[in-house]
């Protein structure tokens, strides 16, 4: 059951995962299947051992039925994530990551961790990356200006997390600009 808009603060993480499930990922099918039409489009044909691109939701469905292996996106590996953690901890700006990297990584790690090289290290690096980026977000909110905010390279989950604080802070700043506090010395 969906909450009324007045009670919703932000999109929930499972809702963000649902949106991310439309992203295309590569699979190695273990079964042959003709091209199949869905509301979101037609996918296939699937011919083992040739790779195919399908939406994440379809890859998860096939993986749970043991009918495919999910190929990790190029950014879901130890080397890439280690590089991003290093950039996040040494550079003042956010490093570039796919918009829905957090949601896609969670789904793949939950369903297909056996298809990944070193999934425990990947989980650890994703956690380190999240913590470093959250620290930058908090610092960015301290520098908030009522006229402009630029936080490039934030992913959808990070935007969703800071949205409630940002909206509230912008409302307060707007009120202060419109109705400045009188100087008690005048």
List the helices and strands and how they pair.
Elements: H1 13-20, E1 24-29, E2 36-38, E3 41-43, E4 52-55, H2 56-64, E5 68-71, H3 78-90, H4 101-112, H5 119-142, H6 156-178
Antiparallel strand pairs: 1-4, 1-5, 2-3
Written account of the structure:
This protein has 186 residues and is mainly α. It folds into two domains: 21-71, 3-Layer(aba) Sandwich (Ribosomal Protein L9, domain 1), CATH 3.40.5.50; 74-180, Methane Monooxygenase Hydroxylase, Chain G, domain 1. The protein has six helices and five strands. It has helices at 13-20, 56-64, 78-90, 101-112, 119-142, 156-178; strands at residues 24-29, 36-38, 41-43, 52-55, 68-71. The strands form two sheets. It has a three-stranded antiparallel sheet. A hairpin with a 2-residue loop joins strand 2 and strand 3. Helix 1 packs across helix 4 (101-112), helix 2 runs parallel beside helix 4 and helix 5 (119-142) packs parallel to helix 6 (156-178). The longest helix is centred in the last third of the chain and has 24 residues, at 119-142. The radius of gyration is 21 Å and the shape is elongated. The mean pLDDT is 86.
Looking at the structure, what is the overall shape? elongated
Number of beta strands: 5
User: What would you say the CATH architecture of the largest domain is?
Assistant: Up-down Bundle
CATH fold assignment of the largest domain: Methane Monooxygenase Hydroxylase, Chain G, domain 1
Order of helices and strands: HEEEEHEHHHH
Spans of 5+ residues with little confidence (pLDDT < 50)?
none
Helical residue percent band: 40-55%
Number of domains: 2
Instruction: Assign the CATH class of the largest domain.
Output: Mainly Alpha
The total of helices stands at: 6
Strand order of the largest sheet: 4-1-5
Radius of gyration: 21 Å
**N-C termini distance:** 55 Å
Average pLDDT confidence is 86
Structural class based on helices, strands and sheet pairing: mainly alpha
Biggest sheet overview: 3 strands, antiparallel
* Residue share in β-strands: 5-15%
